[in-house]
Amino acid sequence: MALILIRGENNSKLLNAIADIERHGNLNLTSKPKVVDAAFADSLVEGILNSKLKTTSNVAAAFFVKEDTTLSIIQVKKIHPPAHVVVVSHEYGAYSKLEYVLNNAQDFQGYHSHKAVNDGMIDYKVNKKERHIKNDKLNSYK
Asked: Which of 6, 12, 44, 107 could cross-link to 94 by cystine, CB 3.0-4.6 Å?
């Protein structure tokens, strides 16, 4: 599981970045995004990058994804979200700090997953009864 921190100018850019990560990055969120203090997020990112940030953020959110850290970094590099996305590895000291903050944080308002919540496709042709077809290749989760 990887921990992703997103910093941005406003809530709509953060919501778009989360949607891009989920849709175009093909990453599966295991937790709802949580609100993180923007100043705290900026200080964590400065510690990870070992340099000063050019711009500060107004809002920040963080969440866990099912994929491992390496795959998450590769997938995030492929997309161009409208906010600053940082995949925080467990090797950094910031990981435990951010994990502690997320346990007490409130949910980020406005986020709704676009992925299916069902078990798979429905086959309507068999005896006129609904029958769920279990397909692990579908991009869905519970």
From this structure: 44
